[in-house]
Amino acid sequence: EKNFEKAYFYTEKISSSSRRMENLIKDVLQFSKLTHNSQEFVPVGLNDVVSEILTDFELVIEQKNALVSIGELPVVEAIPLQMSQLFGNLVSNALKYTRPGIRPEIDITAQTAGESEIRLHALDLKAAYIKIEVRDNGIGFSQEYAHQIFHIFQRLHSNEEYSGTGIGLAMCRKILQNHQGEISVSSQEGAGTAFSVILPLVHKKNGGL
């Protein structure tokens, strides 16, 4: 019986490592394909994008009894798949890094980006930008790590605490670069996190990276 338990333990460990490696390879491949070349920018309704994402996460939302609030989001000229990847990653993080015993709350809102924010991120002052905020009441983190988390393979928690590959937020940053926008984060340990996504309403051809 002890040998069986030992064998089962190691089999599960190998299986878990294989799944992590499979997810890592998949995420690395996705990251390497993130480009704006040869991909068409079309009008994308962000309310539709977020609604589809919430449908995908329906089971997790139900299991965690999460309260998700979506404001009126704009239509932007973008690459549809990359918008799904962007907000999918942000919603996934908000549902993952929750506090035990606290009902998860996620608010997704939009407002016109101000000139000071556009200047801060060295964006085109002649363009019109929208700022979409994805805010949660999760575990948060120290603000000193705000820039670190957007680098590939950078994680603030171990796989034992929270699963992940350390690529999701780097993908978000790359997507915003492809769209001539920017992403930033404000967080406090134990008090939640707010990601700010700044996107141009209209895609400027031959701009960006």
Give a brief description.
The chain is α+β, with helices and mostly antiparallel strands.
Order of helices and strands: HEHHEEHEHEHEE
Q: How does CATH name the architecture?
A: 2-Layer Sandwich
In total, the number of domains comes to: 1
Largest sheet: 5 strands, mixed
Task: Explain what this protein looks like in three dimensions.
With 209 residues, the chain is of the alpha+beta class. It has a single domain (34-200), classed as Histidine kinase-like ATPase, C-terminal domain (Heat Shock Protein 90). Helix content is 40%, strand content 20%. The chain contains 6 helices and 7 strands, in the order αβααββαβαβαββ. It has helices spanning 2-32, 46-56, 58-64, 80-96, 115-120, 168-178; strands at residues 42-45, 67-70, 75-78, 105-112, 129-136, 182-187, 193-200. A 5-stranded mixed β-sheet has the order 2-4-5-7-6, with helices on one face. A hairpin with a 5-residue loop joins β6 and β7. α4 (80-96) runs antiparallel to α6. It is globular and about 65 Å long. The model is unreliable at 157-165 (pLDDT under 50).
Topology record:
Blueprint: H1 2-32, E1 42-45, H2 46-56, H3 58-64, E2 67-70, E3 75-78, H4 80-96, E4 105-112, H5 115-120, E5 129-136, H6 168-178, E6 182-187, E7 193-200
